[in-house]
Amino acid sequence: MADAGSPLRHYILNTSFHGFRFIGDAGLHWTERTFWTICCVLSWTATGFLIKSAWEDFQNNAISFVADTSYLAWDTHFPSIAVCETDNQKSIAEVTDRTYGDPHDYNLDEIVKELVYFRGLSFYTLQICGPEAQVPDEDCFKKNFSFFSREVRSNCSQIFRACRWNDRVFDCCEYFGEIDSEMGTCYAINSIQGKTKKRLEMVSNIKTGPGSLRLEINGVANVYILGEQEVPSLTTLTTDVIQVTPRIHYKRFLAIKEIDNGPEVKDVSVRQRKCRFSDESDLDVYPYYSYSSCCVQCRKDAQKRICGCAHHLMPNTESRIHCNITGLYCLSKHYNELSVLKPYWANRTGLVCDCLPSCTEIELAVIKDDKIGFSEEFAIVDLSLERLPTERFKRNVVRGKLDLVVSMGGSTALFLGASILSFVEIVYYFFVRPVSNSVLAKKTKKEKRKFKLKVNKMEQLILPTVS
C-alpha cells in the first residue's frame, strides 16, 4: 500500500470515482479491500468495452441510409445533359487541306481524327508517325496535337439546331456551357462543372408534371445523361450514353431517384459517411468533386506516373505536360492499364482508383428506348421523365459527436459514478497539488526562518539589559 502521505494514497482516499476510497482505507480488512478492488476492476473493464463499442459505432455506423416516400412536396431536378461531338469528316477534310495542301496523303485525315477525338488509342498516328514507323511522313509534326482539336471541332451554334424544355423553346447556347472532358470540349446543361452560363430551371413537381427535353443536333455526337456534378469520361456507363447520328429520332424515358442529406451529414467525416460533397474537392482537373471527376484525376495521375505525360485533351493540363508522339505510343501500349477501371481485388489488368461516390449523386434508370428514322440531315433527341419519383434515398446521422459524448458519459457515470471533473482530479492530485504544496512548504519554511531570526535578535537585546 502507498505511503500515507503520498499523492497516490491521498488521491485514492479522496477521489470521486466510486469504490477507490474503500481500497485505500487502512481500517478495513484485506478481504474487504480485495472485494472492492475486484468490483472496481470489473466496473472499469465494462466502461472500457462500452466506450470502445460507442467509438466503433461512431466511426463505422454513424450514417443511416433510408428510403423516403413523402413525395408530394418534392422538386425533382432533371439530370445534366452533355453533348460531345465524336466525328466531323467535313471539318477534318477542310482543316487537312489547309494544313497539308490538296492533294495530300489522306492517311493524315485519319491521324487528325484520332487526335481530335482521342479515346486512348492512336493506331494510325503511331503506324505512320510513331517511333516504330519505317519512314515517318514528313508532314507528321507540322502542327501540335491540340491545334487540330481547336480547328476541327464544331462550336455550340454548329452542333445545336434547336432546344426545348417542356415544349418551351430556349436558346441552346445560352444555357449549354462548355465543359472540358477527356474526349475534348463538350457542351452541358444543368451541370456545375462547366464554364458558368445561365441556369435553366429544369424542375419537375406535381404542378409541372414530368419534365422533358428535346434537342436537335447536327452531326455525329454522344449525348451523356449524368448527375449535375458528374462529367463525361471514357468510363461513363454505356447505359448513360446515347450515340447520335443524323436522320434518327431518339426517345428515352427515364426514372430518377435522388439522394437527400440531413443537415448534420456534412459535419460527419468523409471516412464515416463514405462519400464526398461536391465542394470537398482535392482534384485539379475539375473544380467540384464527383466520382467521375475523381476517376479522370486518377487516370491523369496514372498517365503521368507510367508515361511521364498526360494526353492533349486531359482537362486543366498545361501544354508542357502534354504527350508528344513517344508519349502517345506509351499511352497506347498501356491502354488497358490506363483506360479500364477495376476493383482493387480483381486480378485482371486495369486501373484501380480509390474514388468515393458523391453524396448527392442520382440513380438513373432507363425505362424505355425508341428510335425512329426520318429524312432530315440532323438528329432529334427526346429525353423525358417517365413519371415523377415516389421514392428517394435519405442519408441521416444517427450517431453524431454529441451522441458519442452522451454515450461515453453515461457509461462512466453508470459504472464509475464519475463526471468529467473526476478525470480533472487526476491532474489536480498528481500535478497541481504537489506543486502547490511544495510552494507552500517553501513559503512556510522561509517565514519560520524569518520569525526565528527576529526572535534571536530580540533575545540578544533583552539579555544584556537583564544582566
What do these coordinates show?
The protein has 467 residues and is an alpha+beta fold. It has 15 helices and 16 strands. The strands form four sheets. A six-stranded mixed sheet has the order 5-4-9-15-12-14. It has a five-stranded antiparallel sheet with strand order 6-7-3-10-11. It has a three-stranded mixed sheet with strand order 1-16-13, with no helix packed on it. Helix 6 (123-129) crosses helix 12 (325-333). The protein is elongated.
Low-pLDDT windows of residues: none
According to DSSP, the number of beta strands is: 16
Binned, the helix content reads: 40-55%
Main pleated-sheet profile: 6 strands, mixed
The share of residues in extended strands comes to 15-25%
Alpha carbon gyration radius: 37 Å
Shape: elongated
Distance between the termini: 57 Å
Q: Biggest sheet, strands in spatial order?
A: 5-4-9-15-12-14
* Chain-averaged pLDDT: 87
Overall SS class? alpha+beta
Provide a count of the helices. Answer: 15
Provide tags for this entry.
467 residues, alpha+beta, 5-stranded antiparallel beta sheet, 15 helices
SSE blueprint:
Elements (H helix, E strand, L loop, with lengths): L6 H8 L5 H5 L5 H31 L2 E6 L7 E2 L2 E8 L1 H12 L6 H10 L6 H7 L15 H8 L3 H4 E6 L2 E3 L1 H4 L1 E5 L2 E6 L13 E2 L7 E6 L2 E7 L14 E4 L3 E10 L1 E3 L8 H4 L17 H17 L17 H9 L1 H5 L23 E11 L5 E7 L6 E6 L3 H16 L3 H47 L1
Parallel strand pairs: 12-15, 13-16
Antiparallel strand pairs: 1-16, 2-8, 3-7, 3-10, 4-5, 4-9, 6-7, 9-15, 10-11, 12-14
Helix pairs in contact: 1-15, 3-14, 4-5, 5-6, 6-12
